[in-house]
Amino acid sequence: MAEEFPAVSGSLVEQRAPFWRRTGTMVTSAALAAALFGGVTGGMVGALNAPDATTAAVSSPAALRTGSPSTSDVSSIAARVLPSVVQVNVITDQGEGLGSGVVLSGDGRILTNNHVVAGARQVTVTLADGRTVDASVLGSDASSDLAVLRAEGVSGLTPAVFADSDQVRIGDQVVAVGSPEGLQGTVTSGIVSALDRTVTVPATTGRRDAAVSYQAIQTDASINPGNSGGPLVNAAGEVVGINSAIYSPASDSGQAGSVGIGFAIPSNEVQQIIGQLTA
Q: Does 145 qualify as catalytic in the annotation?
């Protein structure tokens, strides 16, 4: 049974919303903390239902099973995916914040998490080339925690390539890309730690979002506040998931950061929702 705990605080966020904990753990919505970047109150935290997880491994294509990544491997993966990743900047009634996004089309359609843009009065995106342009929300779905934006006045962007997440296997090399704590273009590497983790993020009081539950890809690639909405990619630089949550026990100071347990919405689920959000 989930238990409610009082608010916690961190160096970049004055106060987070009450969180839920199960067997001594909590799962934090990764970019919600960063969406409150600069000391604005708020936050979102959820519960990891570990007993429902499935971790059985089956065979996978050799191209995806490369083992521990070398520096050159990660460099080549980063070179392929970085042009397709943006920083999403928002202004809400609570203040300014940020997350990450993935380019879907050359004319400026961009995918991110719903919780990154929920309640936003103004949205801009900072492109890989450093330009910042206005953006609008084409569609959003709180139940899947996904949203599609339209960056205005742009062309020739580099769309990301999506892979079949059903082909992802435990132990596969993956790389996460985004803007943790506003550090745009940050690349971290790791492996797929588990599959089909049931992650539930409850609704947060005072925000325009709702409880979200999905079967996630678990990774030990470092994911922190600001990574939400950014891609988790395979060894070919193809998107296998959208980073959305982290497990992070609060320290004595109340800060929450990556401990190597992050979660991404599988790409197959994402692709099913994209069409609905832009129809």
A: yes
